[in-house]
Amino acid sequence: MEIPIDDSYEQGRFADLAFCYAPVGLVVTEDRVIRQCNIAFGEMFGYAPEELENQVFAILYPTDAEFVNIRDRGVKQLRETNRYWDERIMARKDGTLFWCRVRGHSFTPDDPLARAVWSFADLSAERPYFPLTRREREILSYLSEGLTSKEIAINLEISHRTVEVYRAKLLRKFGVNNTSGLFHSMGGIDGDHVVSTSDQ
């Protein structure tokens, strides 16, 4: 996907130019299917943009199970505010995993994932990926949204004590004493960047 720059300026077609060459990954989806993405999005995941067109988003997750687990995240907030963002682990074409900041806007708020546009930012430079189990990734992702252990337990349909065990393992693994230290050790994330239900 490339847009002639000179022609776009002469004809005033700046929206096409902005979408194609934005320095952040942009993708338009329909029912979790990638309809079109820009150059930066393709490069981030190791694909040519046309390779991703009409692919189910599951192709970009570490496992199908993780796609199923995370695919409905943000639906409630999109319905209420039409704004959502979180930070999650995604997978490149070569299988390497990396942290990504995802922001979404729906064109169909009553059915938020029917038609939407998303931005993706690669956080590798500030937050390197550390190998984690699927359950550790799930819990870490929910912690990054500001959820309590009880709220995480409800979402994952496990006991509150199990969440606490995993949280303690994560703290030991990263050699820190609390959740704030955990995120700081993963690249400097602090309270101002932890997603909560009141954030955009």
Entry summary:
The protein is α+β, with helices and mostly antiparallel strands. It contains 10 helices and 5 strands. The protein starts with a helix and ends in a 15-residue tail after the last helix.
SSE order and pairing:
Elements: H1 5-11, H2 14-21, E1 25-30, E2 33-37, H3 39-45, H4 49-52, H5 64-70, H6 75-81, E3 84-91, E4 97-106, E5 115-122, H7 134-144, H8 149-156, H9 160-174, H10 179-185
Helix pairs in contact: 7-9, 8-9, 9-10
N-to-C CA distance = 30 Å
Unreliable residue runs: 188-200
Rg calc = 18 Å
Mean pLDDT: 86
Helix/strand/pairing category: alpha+beta
**Number of DSSP-assigned strands:** 5
Across the major sheet, the strand order is 2-1-5-4-3
Order of helices and strands: HHEEHHHHEEEHHHH
The largest pleated sheet is described as: 5 strands, antiparallel
Morphology: globular
The DSSP helix count reads 10
Spell out the key features of this protein.
10 helices; DNA-binding; transcription regulation; 200 residues; 5 strands; PAS-like_dom_sf; WH-like_DNA-bd_sf; Sig_transdc_resp-reg_C-effctor
Describe this structure in words.
- A hairpin with an 8-residue loop joins strand 4 (97-106) and strand 5 (115-122).
- This protein has helices spanning 5-11, 14-21, 39-45, 49-52, 64-70, 75-81, 134-144, 149-156, 160-174, 179-185, and strands at residues 25-30, 33-37, 84-91, 97-106, 115-122.
- The model is unreliable at 188-200 (pLDDT under 50).
- The chain has 200 residues and is of the alpha+beta class.
- The chain contains 10 helices and 5 strands.
- A 5-stranded antiparallel β-sheet has the order 2-1-5-4-3.
